[in-house]
Amino acid sequence: KWLDAHYDPVANLYTFSSCIVGDLGTGASNMKLKVYRGTGLLSENTLLDLPTGLVSFLMDQHEPCTPAIAVASGPFIYIYKNLRPYFKFTLPTLEVNPLEQDVWSQAREDMIDPMTLKEMLEGIRFLMLEPQDMEAYVNLHKQQPIRRQTVITCIGTLKKNMADDDAVSCLVIGTESQEVYILDPEAFTILAKMSLPSVPTLMDVTGQFDVEFRITIACRNGNIYILRRDSPRPKYCIELSSHPVGLVRMGKNVVVGCAQETLHGYTQKGKKLWTTYLPAPVTTMAVLDLPTRGFQAVLVGLANCEVHVYRDKNLISTIKTPDLVTSICFGRYGREDGTLIMTTKGGGLIVKILKRTAVFDDKDSAPGPPIAQSIRLNVPKKTKLYVDQTMRERENAVAMHRAFQMDLSRMRLAAARAYVKALESSLTPMSASLTEPLKMNAVVQGLGPSFKLTLNIQNTAACRPVMNLAISFLYDENLYSMRTAFFKIPLLVPGLNYPIDTFVECLSDKGISDIIKVFVLREGKSAPLLTAHINMPVSEGLALN
Q1: What is the value of pTM for the model shown?
Q2: Cα 369 to the center of its chain, rounded Å
């Protein structure tokens, strides 16, 4: 299903799905924004701080429509256009504690000494310094204005007023201060501000800002919140059993990968639809969307060097990778609509192309119960007859239960009587006698008119042999004749199978058959130990003659 287009194990790309095409470097230095054309590196731009997210979006409708790149890093958003730095947006500062503001104002005017300043700041836990470093720190910072700055934790895009692919998009950012901002794409002013109960970590945005939109956010407290237009607080909340490590949207449903090696499906209102257990922890997630085929699935990168493709809860494909996948992206790349780009833990770059003839089966390729087990039954509506029967059963419950118990007791009595009758008349193929525990079965061979009848007799006792036994046959002499209808059985050793053969001739040419009864007898007793009824087949050989 997949073509291996390119693999570079030493591409030196260390990144995540939120920063794909951005290189994190070592996490403290050598952070770069790398741009590829085809499989070759086109340009590099050095980043000043560790990026937390990267998105592409259209700022305006001017021809030619060239998308811009927004890189979130610390409290800033760096905008790149035509592969060059274009604009830098800074998050608004947060409100400063009034007590801290007043104390630093007094220190600026030398109204308090450093020891008093430290004591007052320790009460609100803003300053933790050793005594010998206090005076130098105060002299260095007292003339500077006090600012409280937050940082960006996740970033996304939201169409402004049209759903077209070439429509203008707004930036949506989540911050460490538990707030979500929506920015204007041209002036970079704040269009909307929403608050969350916890710090956002993952984000998925759908809709249009001027019409209706939904922002699905996974937070650090292990919950997922859904924000809607004209609502400053979350509209719905999904409580998870473990922390989310991946979040994607499929149509009107939300798919969440959790730290407990599980994949969950939820509706937009937080109702749980299904759960799938994974063979390894989730490392990254992305959407596989093919609008030309009307096909959507979820790509899940796992820690066992595999990428699983899920449609709802069904595993429809598995991709083996040479290294652990850390970031994944699917979409149009060049002239190919179905291109899968992955980076690995060792810094490698993998490019795969989906075959145009590839077909994904809806059935689950993973072992487990069939798909039909999870399909809801089409239960018909309750009819008037059903309701009347229910009312009758409620009103006559005691009488119906007594009648059922009476019929059950009668059936048990009839079964017990038939069993006792079979034991007394020795009609069973196993002996009920404790002194001669025997077992017998019969095999008929041949097409006719001659049949070979083989009786297999076995002594099932633990250590006691059985002797002085005989076999007798009872049959219709007008239909069959036997060479030997009565003979004695030799001593039966426990555990051994004794085959006894005899021949039966069919005398009728009318194509009919009958039963031959076999009796195992003991000398001196009139009742047989065993009885077997052999249904003889129709003599085909005689019919041919």
Answers
A1: 0.59
A2: 12
In the numeric block, which tokens belong to residue 85?
Answer: 């730095």
Strand arrangement of the beta sheet that strand 438-445 belongs to: 438-445, 450-459, 497-506, 480-482
Reduce the secondary structure of 281-298 to three states and give it as a string. Answer: CEEEEEEEEECCCCEEEE
Backbone angles phi, psi at 347, to 5 degrees: 90, 10
| Tens-level pLDDT at each residue, the chain (545 residues) | 788 888 888 777 777 766 555 445 444 566 778 887 777 777 777 777 788 888 888 888 777 778 888 888 888 888 888 878 888 888 888 777 777 777 767 777 667 766 666 666 654 444 565 666 666 666 666 666 777 778 888 888 888 888 787 788 888 999 888 888 888 888 888 888 888 888 888 888 888 888 888 888 888 888 888 888 877 788 788 888 888 888 888 888 889 998 888 889 888 888 888 888 888 889 888 888 888 777 888 899 998 888 898 888 888 888 888 888 888 888 888 777 788 888 888 888 888 888 877 777 766 555 566 666 667 778 888 899 999 999 999 999 999 999 999 999 999 999 999 888 776 665 665 665 666 788 888 888 888 788 888 888 888 888 888 888 888 888 888 888 888 788 888 888 888 888 888 888 888 877 788 888 888 888 877 777 888 888 888 887 654 44
Q: Which helix (H) or strand (E) holds 409?
A: helix 397-424
**Short-list 238, 391, 166, 452, CA closest to 400:** 391
Phi, psi of 43 (to 5 degrees): -155, 165
Q: Where are the beta strands (DSSP E) in 461-507?
A: 469-474, 480-482, 486-489, 497-506
